[in-house]
Fold this sequence. Notes:
By secondary structure, the protein is mainly α. Helices cover 73% and strands 3% of the residues.
Amino acid sequence: MDILTLALLLTVGLYWLNNRHQRRRMLLLGRHLQPYQIEKLMEALMDGYLRALGESTPERREQIWHLLATTEHQLSEQFRRFAKDFAQVQADSTRISRLPLPLPLADVWWPQATFDMRQALSIHARGLERAVHRQPGQSERDRAFTMSAELLLMQHTCHWFCKSHTMASARMLARHQTPYAQLVASVAPETRRDYLALVRGQAAAQ
Length: 206
């Protein structure tokens, strides 16, 4: 068997293994998301923020912010429950590779280069819960901006879990015109601290 044929067989084998691994991840995540309306609530909230910011009168903006409060609380609560449910998944199915490109079974042969999806979801749940409540001196516009960043970073983590960091970042840039670095910089400081500590494999500063 010549080198070219061997390389081709290895490439096809890796592609097949990687697709199989990704399908398992998507099925696992989808099964746990199925009882919730997180995606639907997220879409309604993001559209609502755009409507509120586009209103020309303060009175109308205030009405929309008030209506969106219920959706925010529902989304935060549902995601908290989802993260709690996902925390019951066995650890060997929840590792996320820090490698930029998807490699099949990287979580098995290089566990040091992974982090735990369960911990990431817990960080996102806390971030969403904080973002629901306006901080002293924070405008509704700024709170909506932070909440949007928290939601998009959570979505990035879900895509990272199913695919890879590179593919998740590319999808975020294509769909929301937001680079990954900007997304991380836009979430609340507590979320950014805990998230970066986790994905970089460092102890979070207290």
